[in-house]
Each structure stands twice: as C-alpha cells, then as structure tokens.
Amino acid sequence: MIKALSALGCVVLSAAVLLPGCTPFTVAAGGGAAAYHFLHEDDVNLLQRNYAAADYLDQQMRGVVARHALIRAVPLTNSDVPSLDADMAFFIPEDIGERFIQLGYKVDLAQVTTIRDTRNPAPAQYTQDQADYILSGAYRQVGKEVEISLRVTSAQSGKRIASFDYVVATTRSMRSASKPAPKIVRVP
After folding, report:
1. CB atoms within 10 A of CB 63
2. How many CA atoms lie within 13 A of 176 on its CB side?
3. What does pTM read for this prediction?
4. How does the average pLDDT of the chain come out, rounded?
5. CA-based Rg of the chain, rounded to a whole angstrom?
6. Which residue has the higher pLDDT, 110 or 133?
7. What is the mean pLDDT of residues 144-168?
8. DSSP assignment letter at 151
C-alpha cells in the first residue's frame, strides 16, 4: 500500500514538473521565471530582454488593461539630453509593442516603427483613435551600461498602470544606437 502511494505521489509530482502549462497559474509563474532568467543573463540579446520586460509589464497590466483597449507606443526619452533622440528611443518601445501584440493587446506602433517598408507600410488604422494607455519610458547611458525605464500609464488620468526598469550591458551596436543624432540649431 505504501509503495502504491509513493508511486502515485511520484507520478503526480512528475506530472506537475513535466506539465507546467496545465493551469494558468503555472503558466504565469513560469513566464515570470523565464523573464527573470533572460533579464539577468549576460549573453542574451536586446530583443530577448525587451520581450522579457514586456512579459513583466503584461503581468502587472492583467486585470487592469483590457485586450480591446488601445495602447500607443511613444519613443523613449533620453534622460541626459531630453531634446535629442537616438535609435534606441524607437526600437525598444517597438519591440515591447510587438510583444504586446503577440500577447493579444491592441497596440499603435506608428510613432516608433523603425523599419519603413514602402511595399508594405505600417498600418495607420489606429492613428486617429484616442489611446487608452501610453507605453513610454526613458533610457540613460551609465558607464558601460544602459538603464532602461518603461511604464504604461492611463492616457486620461496619467495614472501609472505598470512599470519596469532594467539594465543592458553596452555593446558596440548599443553604443551607436544610444548616441543621439546631432542636431544643427540656429541661434538668434
């Protein structure tokens, strides 16, 4: 009898370990663990880190942001020089917005789309709609790292719905993407 119970316990325990996708709770817990792994791994690329950050934001937004609500992604702000934008200001919210679309949200990426395809232009279906939520944030170069701060706020009240901060090691491509393009300004 004891052998049968221990065998049954082993089967149940192994099923719980081998089949983590059986319940929504374990899926959410597994997604958070995977996102944590990607954000703290040294050799992971920026796209994977942005997708993991989007998963963290999604966990905070559940139950607050409806899937039919429109989220507008806007470029990130350079904390050191807010008036200058770098490529990073556009492709990070674009990656986050693309992941939100994969998760079932309605996202307007018109302001952050980095690839202009003249054959298949980005859909402008949401540009006239009033956004319910805004995906925004800031970034800052600190030594050999880039600090990224993301937030989702209500467009009507300005209330913060979700936020997440993470750090990315600077690679050669990250350095060039985080440098603002020079602007020529006329001084009167």
Report:
1. 6
2. 2
3. 0.66
4. 74
5. 21
6. 133
7. 92
8. E
Tokens 């059986």 correspond to 22
Specify the DSSP element, H or E, that contains 72: strand 70-73
Say whether 111 sits in a helix, a strand or coil: coil
- The CB density around residue 120, as the number of other CB atoms within 10 Å, is 7
How many helices, marked H, and strands, marked E, lie in the chain? 5, 6
Listed residue (103, 114, 110, 91) closest to 162, CA to CA: 103
17 φ/ψ angles, rounded to the nearest 5 degrees: -75, -45
Q: What are 145's two structure tokens?
A: 């790292």
Give me 162's structure tokens. Answer: 């979700």
Tens of pLDDT, residues 16-63: 444 444 433 333 444 454 454 444 444 457 888 999 999 999 999 999
Closest CA to 92 of 47, 134, 122, 32: 47
- Going by their DSSP bridges, the two strands 133-142 and 77-78 should be labelled as parallel
Residues 85 and 78: beta-carbon distance below 8 Å: yes
Give the residue from 175, 167, 163 showing the smallest Cα distance to 54. Answer: 163
Domains and CATH numbers, the chain: 24-178 (3.40.50)
3-state secondary structure (DSSP) of residue 92 = helix
